[in-house]
Amino acid sequence: METTGTNRAVEAVWRIEEARIIAGLSRMVNDIGLAEELAQDALVAALEQWPASGIPDNPGAWLMAISKRRAIDGFRRNRRLEDKYAQLGRSLEEDGNQGTADFDAVLDDTIEDDLLRLVFTACHPVLSTEARVALTLRLLCGLTTKEIARAYLTAEPTIAQRIVRAKRTLTEAGVPFEVPQGDEREERLASVLEVIYLVFNEGYAATSGDDWMRPALCEEAMRLGRIVAELVPAEPEVHGLVALMELQASRTRARAGSDGEPVLLLDQDRARWDRMLIGRGLSGLERAERLGGPPGPYALQAAIAACHARANTPEDTDWVRIAALYAALVQRVPSPVVELNRAVALGMAFGPLVGLELVDSLTDEPTLKAYHLLPSVRGDLLAKLGRTGEARAEFERAASLTGNERERALLRSRAKACAEE
Fold first, then answer.
1. 119 near 192, Cβ under 8 Å?
2. Which residues does the UniProt record annotate as the domain RNA polymerase sigma-70 region (predicted)?
């Protein structure tokens, strides 16, 4: 096989196996930073050896075996971890150095537990939100520092420092590489789901830059969400989150015009919505509901997205149900942003004046002062009431607040349309 083709094959294998290898090594050495270094050493070895020797029958097992050997070499140089050396030595002997060994067996049949441990560790609340997102994208999604920086329009050294500091913080805080139990598990799971949805939202509606969407981030978030759903299948909120992301992502092709300009929900060509993703999302929502208990925030949002997905035309949308679901969501997670979304639903269900009354009650909310969607929603409701002068001012204010160039152009266009009426 030619070198270029082999390198592409190595990259493909690495994309599949990286998170599992790092997870398995993290359990053994109890240090995420060291585990990542060992895994990278194995990748380098593969790039050096596979072009000549060919790709092993079970490349994941080969990479894991090489990583273990690198760990043993390190422990030989550092007698502080003699017990770990013995543990890894026995493990390597049991593997028999056979690259054809089953990958799960190489990881001592704990691959799922190890992945779950890595998920909970990377998303640990001891880290800042930005650090959790960066570390998750690096370790669990396999994105390079350069790819993460490009996705978030951030300098590469900044992302690199963020990841290094995150790993150092975990080590210094003595965060155990384990799956939390009891009440702590629910709190930590909420942190995991928050990180996944933050990644998805940045892809679905970019907060800055020239692109309206960054679909690659949506794909990574959905992939990670599905992995977590497989690891904790009895958690309804995990299935609710995956359903929510799939239902929202189903609109991706219809959310932008030929020139990349944003297309609002009610103006979208619903024939371009992805029916496969809608089907998966609706099935996931049903699964979350079957697991029982009161619906959580993600399941409620998925139910709202399902109302849109089931409507063949904007006129078919059950806005009364959507308004009721937002009311339930406010009860679960009181938030001015949720109230703003409820105002939109109320305006659609019962008329723009009803929606405007709720929006006006939010204008003094400190957390919404710099939130561009507040004047955007208010402008839309005012325009429907024929108060075009006021609507124009609101759209112009919204345009000044958003950091996304595509969205700014759309808001200015709406302001201009108001001036022409």
1. yes
2. 21-80
